[in-house]
Amino acid sequence: MSTPPDGLPVYRVLTGPDDAAFCQRVSEAIGLGYELHEGPAVTFNGENVIVAQALVWPALP
């Protein structure tokens, strides 16, 4: 597949609390064919650890 499914963009950033639901969202994107772009960004908002993970659709060779 040369483009992401369902009209999704080729570059995505997922954000949210560092919990099982966030990990599941990243896992689902990887399952669709996205690849991680670098490592995650992590911060603390005073209550929770917040994570941002960039994902990219692989380029055609």
Automatic annotation (TrEMBL):
Residues 10-56 form the DUF1737 domain. InterPro entries: DUF1737. This is DUF1737 domain-containing protein. It comes from Streptomyces achromogenes.
